[in-house]
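Its record is set out here:
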Amino acid sequence: MSKEDLRIFLEKVHNLNALVASLETVPGRKADLENCENHDQVISLAKSWGFEISRRWGE
């Protein structure tokens, strides 16, 4: 894994951890996430909350 790939990977993990934490602190977020029917909806919803989780570390 290159240094840049590692940086991207760690950034995505950080965003995912922050998103998960927000599910417990921001009312309604967990329900909004549960209402998603596919991956694209999850990505779009997360982006609207300020989390970039769509990019794969190797891309």
Remarks:
- The mean pLDDT is 92.
